[in-house]
């Protein structure tokens, strides 16, 4: 695997996308054609920012499979194929594993009874915050720690009870500042630097480069906060994925 390129793994929405699991919000109708158009716009935004997008094999039987981030977590050349907390999602890992094996590097697998979704893993420098959510259990955290600890990472378990995943509640800016919407965050004090954002949809950013972030167009006030800090902001509409508790981080796995 080479770090000269920046690669983003993505996966097309399944035809049964609207049947995706929900935990903390009420189900509302999902427009599949709009979702497909929004997914294409998202992929194009990554490509426009210099990322090489690669499609993971579709999983049309798995409605949540578009949220590829939950299936695999990257630590440089090391890929960790997850053990999804929802039984209906466990088949998603096969295609994800095949995709990261094509990249080269080392591949590890988490195993039951451990469960862990990639959406619960937030990397900030050498610190790895892992959400203890309904989808990620203590054994999943233990297995991940055993893999990444020898690589120089420190794992910090974080309680998550107000959102589906840790990265539904918080992500991080390029300088390492953790951002989040306070009503979704169990304990802001667990993070070295925390910045509150004014909208729930403003919690998630994808770091495109050291000066640029990608985020949902549904959080204009949060975007203004980031611009005020000196960042360039790229926005995309992801309304149909937000109806399924998804966000911009969920829709790709960034390899750098």
What does this structure look like?
The chain is 22% helix and 25% strand. The model has no long low-confidence stretch (mean pLDDT 96). Strands 2-1-15 form a 3-stranded mixed β-sheet, covered by helices on one side. A 3-stranded mixed β-sheet has the order 3-4-5, with helices on both faces. The N and C termini lie close together (9 Å). Helix 1 links the parallel strand 1 and strand 2. The chain is α/β, with parallel strands linked by helices and 256 residues long. The protein contains 6 helices and 15 strands.
Explain the layout of strands and helices:
Blueprint: E1 7-10, H1 32-48, E2 52-55, E3 72-75, E4 78-81, H2 93-103, E5 106-109, E6 121-124, E7 127-132, H3 138-148, E8 154-159, H4 166-169, E9 170-172, E10 178-180, E11 194-196, E12 205-209, E13 212-216, H5 220-228, E14 232-236, H6 239-242, E15 253-255
Q: Concise description?
A:
The chain has 256 residues and is α/β, with parallel strands linked by helices.
List keywords for this structure.
3-stranded mixed beta sheet, 256 residues, single chain, 25% strand, alpha/beta, 15 strands
